[in-house]
Structures are given as structure tokens and as C-alpha cells.
Write a structure and sequence with these properties.
Serine Threonine Protein Phosphatase 5, Tetratricopeptide repeat; 473 residues; 21 helices
């Protein structure tokens, strides 16, 4: 080794901190002797200067602990090298055959959403499938209030936590099962008489959920008939709460997109504070750009609310008058239909009574005419039988009458008379008279029907069907 790179015995002896007559690299670094190895001049200077004292083991340990062996970047490189060597040392297993299929790595299964015991828990966590199961399968009441938590409904929970999917499903379920009127009552229901908080107020005053989701919820509630000017137990409406939380998108939507905002802007709570006063107080308490814009927006609206209030008031009066006219017209139509039904019923009863009286008179006249025609036919038949032609006809038809009589006697229908010829002649005359009477009555009935037809009133039946077929509004 070169003389410029050698160390003196005294320096090596001082470097031996543990006294085992062996100098390690750590001991050399502890005494900073590596600098002597890099510079020969430093070695000569070290030899001329007085030798330092031997380091104690405690001081040596503290120095070696504070100075690591390798630099951080070198440690990182060595660790990567060891990892790479260990990876390439592992041998890949040889395949059993060329046709062996690759083993499919099973995909990690997605855990199913936890089941909820109550509809309020499902609404709070945003679990739509569990809420659908509870409402449609287990038939839970969608209007039920949670008495243990201030009387809140599932719509209150969904609006508070900002779950748009729960709000959409609950409103669609109520509309499909209960109707539009029930949906309007559902979105305006209060939790309890103590707080008088609606789902709209819950969405406006909540800090949970995303702001865009809460804005979508508020738009849905307003679309389904949520009352914007409703005040809670402290007199605060939706604009009071939106100004209190400095929610600029919600305030902008309520002021510019809804008609009832002009009434909510000028409304006072129980502390005689308007939404503008609350926005000013929040700006003074915690100044921010959002609070400043909310205050400027409400101040601008409050400045123009007089004109807007007149416009809204005129529109409200116009709509009220149109509704009154429509209601009055419907009442008049209903009254006319009811009167027509009563009159038609009375006319129908009167017509039926008159028809029955006329029919009875007609039937009596028909019976009288038929009796007269029958009596007249009987008299003519009897007179004809006494004539020469009648006797000749009776003599001609007598054998056939005798045969019929014999058949009746053989059948046991009639007993055997003493004079069969006389009885056959009498029966022949009676049959002729009955036939003439029947023919005369039939001819008289046809003549009477032509001269006196059945009573009908097509006009009454037509108007009666027209009135009864009219829809009841």
C-alpha cells in the first residue's frame, strides 16, 4: 500500500474503541479517519497535531447509531436489487401438457349491501334496494314517522343526508300507489308539531351530502309541490336556512326559479329577521366570497321585491279569478245535469203512468171488440148450419166426425154414447162454430192493431238516454 494512504499505529490504536486489537470500518468512521485516507496532507497534519483521546464505548455507540452505513438512495437501490434477484431466482413451474388450460383467477366478489332493519336506516344509508324490499315486499308504511327521532319520515332522512336516489324512489312510489294529492302531502309533511320541519327545510339546512345532490333534491321537491314559504317552529323558511348555511346555488335557484320566493324573501322569523338579515350576520361572522355573493343576491332581490310582489300578487289574483270562474261553470253544469236528471225522472214516471192508463183503456176496448166479433161470428155460424148449404156440409163431413169420435172412444178419452151419429153431428157443429169465432177474433185483432197501434214516445226515450249518458262533473 502507498505511504500516502497508510495510517500510523497510534491512530489505529485510538480507533480501537472496544480494545479487541481489531479495527473495523465503523470504528474508522467514528473517528472520521476516512478523511485521512482520502488526503495525504490531512495525514501529515494529523501526525503533527496531538493525538485525541480514546473514545469510550458509549460515545462510539452513539456516533455509529447516528451515522448509518449507507446513504438513503443507496439503501433503496440495494433493496430493489435484492428483490429483483429473489424474483428471478424463483423458477417457473413447467406445464404438465400443452393442452392444459390456464387456471382462471376468481374475481373478488363484491360484498352485498348490508340489510337494514328499518326503512329509516335504509333511507339514511341510501340503500334503495333494501328500501324497495321493505316497502314493496314487507309492505311497510311509507308515511310512517320515526317517533324515537323527532317524528322524521324517510323523506326527511333522505333530504338530510343528500340521497337523490332515495328521494326519487320514495316520491315515485307514493305517486304510483297513492296518487298526486298524496304526493303533495308527502313532500309537505312535518316531522312534529314541536319543530315543524319539512323535507325541503331539511335539505336546505343540512351540511351533509354533495351540494349538487341537495340542489337536485330541492328541485324535485319544488316540482312535486313543496311549499317554499313554509316556516318551522322558529319562523325560518327555506331562504332563512339557505342564507344561514351560505349555500349560493340553492339561494340562487329559490330566488330566480320559484314564484313563491318573493313572499319568502320578505318573511320574518320569530326574531324579526329576514333572510337578508341572516345573510348579513353570517357575512360579518365569517366573511367569505360565497357569503358575500349570497348577501348581494338577497339584497338585490329585496330591493326589487316590491315590483315582483305586485306582479306575483296580480298573477295570484288572476289565477284565483280563473279558478273561481271555472269552479262556478262546473257548478252550473252540475246543477243543470242534476235538474235534468230530476226532470227526466219525473217525466219518465208521468209517461209511464199515462202509458199504463192508455194501455189499460186500449186493452179494454180491444177485449170488447173481440167479444162482439166472436158473438157475431157464433150467431152467423149457427144460422149457416141451419141453412141448406150448412146441412149439406154437415152431411158431407159427418163420416169423418164419426171416425174421430170412434178413435176417441177407443182411446178411452170419451165414453161410448147411445147415439154416436147424433153426438158426432153435435161435435161437428161445435167445431165449426169455434173455428168461425176464432177466425173472426183474429181478423178483428189485426184490424184493431192497424187502427190503434201500441203507444210509444221516441222523443221521451231519446232525451232520457241523452241526459242519463251525460258525464257527472
Amino acid at each position: 500500500m502507498d505511504s500516502t494512504r497508510t495510517l500510523s499505529f497510534q491512530s489505529l490504536q485510538l480507533a480501537d474503541a472496544d480494545g479487541n486489537n481489531a479495527v473495523t470500518s465503523k470504528e474508522i468512521r467514528a473517528l472520521h479517519l476516512h478523511r485521512q485516507l482520502s488526503s495525504a496532507e490531512h495525514i501529515h497534519h494529523e501526525a503533527a497535531s496531538p493525538l485525541p483521546k480514546r473514545l469510550s464505548p458509549a460515545v462510539f455507540a452513539s456516533i455509529t447509531e447516528t451515522q448509518p452505513r449507507h446513504a438513503p438512495w443507496l439503501k433503496k437501490a440495494l433493496a430493489r436489487m435484492e428483490t429483483s434477484q429473489a424474483f428471478w431466482k424463483e423458477r417457473e413451474p413447467t406445464p404438465k401438457s400443452a393442452t392444459t388450460r390456464r387456471k382462471t383467477i376468481p374475481k373478488p366478489s363484491v360484498p352485498a349491501p348490508p340489510s337494514c332493519a328499518t326503512i329509516w336506516e335504509a333511507a339514511s344509508t341510501g340503500n334503495v334496494s333494501e328500501l324497495r324490499r321493505l316497502l314493496e315486499v314487507e309492505k311497510r308504511d311509507v308515511f310512517r314517522h320515526h317517533e324515537a327521532d323527532g317524528g322524521r319520515t324517510i323523506l326527511h332522512y333522505a333530504c338530510w343526508h343528500g340521497h337523490v336516489n332515495i328521494v326519487m324512489y320514495a316520491t315515485m312510489f307514493v305517486q304510483a300507489t297513492k296518487g298526486l294529492e298524496a304526493l303533495r302531502l308527502f313532500v309537505n309533511c312535518i316531522d312534529s308539531a314541536y319543530s315543524r320541519c319539512t323535507p325541503l327545510l331539511e335539505a336546505c339546512r343540512s351540511y351533509k351530502g354533495h351540494l349538487n345532490d341537495k340542489l337536485k333534491i330541492i328541485k324535485l321537491l319544488v316540482l312535486y309541490g313543496a311549499t317554499l314559504e313554509h316556516q318551522d317552529a322558529h319562523g325560518d323558511n327555506a331562504l332563512h336556512w339557505s342564507a344561514r348555511v351560505s349555500s349560493l346555488p340553492i339561494v340562487r335557484y329559490l330566488v330566480k326559479e320559484t314564484d313563491a320566493a318573493v313572499f319568502a324573501v320578505i318573511a320574518d322569523n320569530y326574531k324579526h329577521e329576514k333572510p337578508l338579515d341572516i345573510a348579513k350576520r353570517m357575512l360579518q361572522r365569517k366573511p367569505s366570497m360565497q357569503a358575500t355573493e349570497v348577501y348581494d343576491l338577497l339584497r338585490h332581490v329585496y330591493r326589487e321585491c316590491n315590483i315582483r310582489l305586485k306582479i306575483q300578487y296580480g298573477k295570484k289574483i288572476r289565477l284565483h279569478q280563473e279558478a273561481e270562474r271555472k269552479s262556478k261553470r262546473n257548478e252550473e253544469v252540475v246543477y243543470a245535469l242534476d235538474t235534468a236528471r230530476v226532470c227526466a225522472s219525473r217525466a219518465d214516471g208521468l209517461w209511464r203512468s199515462c202509458h199504463e192508463a192508455a194501455e189499460s183503456a186500449r186493452n179494454a176496448l180491444e177485449a170488447k171488440l173481440l167479444d162482439d166479433a166472436g158473438k157475431e161470428a157464433v150467431g152467423r155460424a149457427q144460422l149457416w148450419l141451419d141453412t141448406k148449404d150448412g146441412k149439406a156440409w154437415a152431411k158431407k163431413e159427418l163420416p169423418a166426425a164419426l171416425d174421430d169420435l170412434k178413435n176417441l172412444i177407443q182411446d178411452g178419452t170419451l165414453p161410448k154414447p147411445r147415439d154416436m151419429k147424433k153426438v158426432a153431428a153435435v161435435r161437428l157443429g161445435e167445431a165449426y162454430i169455434a173455428m168461425q169465432e176464432t177466425d173472426a177474433r183474429d181478423q178483428m185483432r189485426k184490424k184493431f192493431m192497424r187502427e190503434h197501434p201500441l203507444l210509444e214516445s221516441r222523443d221521451v226515450e231519446f232525451f232520457k238516454r241523452l241526459v242519463l249518458a251525460a258525464p257527472h262533473k
